Amino acid sequence: MSEEKPLRLVLAMAGASGSIYAARFIKALMEIPGETWFVPSPASIRVFKEEYETNVQTGEDVLEFVRKKWNPKQVHKFHLRKFEDIGADIASGSNIWDGMVVIPCSMKTVAAIRTGITENLIERAADVTLKERRKLILVPRETPYNRIHLENMLALHDAGAIIAPASPGFYQMPQSLEDLGDFMATRIFRLLGREIDLYPRWNP
Q1: Which of 58, 157, 175, 196 is most buried, by CB atoms within 10 Å?
Q2: How far apart are CA 202 and CA 171, in angstroms?
Q3: Region of residue 42 (phi > 0: left; psi between -120 and 50: alpha; otherwise: beta)
């Protein structure tokens, strides 16, 4: 694991399919030094509940689910923030974080961030991340994309966001869904400037 300075991150879950990607990223995040402000949307909790066939109700329940399922070494500190609290600390650029990841990211959230609509804390924190020129990584899980989706993502790319679709590779010969989640988690960590390898690098 990385010996670099502790990572300060804003992490959001929006209401798209792909809870495995969020869960495995959280699991890996728990094992590195730093702190994360965690904002799950109500829709993301519902999707997580259905995709994992569990009874999570809150962000803390999601964290506890990850802890119990994979028993990671818990080094990282998490701060829960309410989706509707647009006056929270991470709604202001006067607070500092290294980057923000929205995983998975719904097309509704993409559209809201693209247009500068900030009706909830995920949208507001993303807006702040962009205006402060910090790293914003959006992980959409949708297929196929229509023209509106593509135009929104292109506009966000041009505004400085990184669009990292949940498109795991298969050259690492995945044996489980967890392997696919780890592929995306590794790619996100590398985009954040952290060399954390959760799967073997390509070595032909």
Answers
A1: 196
A2: 7
A3: alpha
Q: CA 37, CA 14: separation in Å to the nearest integer?
A: 14
Q: Is the pLDDT of residue 1 over 50?
A: no
| Interval 58-103: pLDDT, tens | 999 999 999 999 999 999 999 999 999 999 999 999 999 999 999 9
CB atoms inside a 10 Å sphere around CB 175:
8
User: H-type helices in 52-146, by residue range?
Assistant: 59-70, 107-115, 121-131
Residue 37 dihedral angles phi and psi, to the nearest 5°: -95, 115
Collapsing DSSP to helix, strand or coil, 92 comes out as coil
Q: Is the pTM of this model over 0.90?
A: yes
Q: How confident is the model at residue 3 (pLDDT cuts 50, 70, 90)?
A: low
Angle at 140 between CA 136 and CA 142, to 5 degrees: 165
What tokens were used for 103? Answer: 């995983």
Instruction: Give the contacts of 160 (CB within 8 A, at least 6 positions apart).
Output: 130, 133, 136
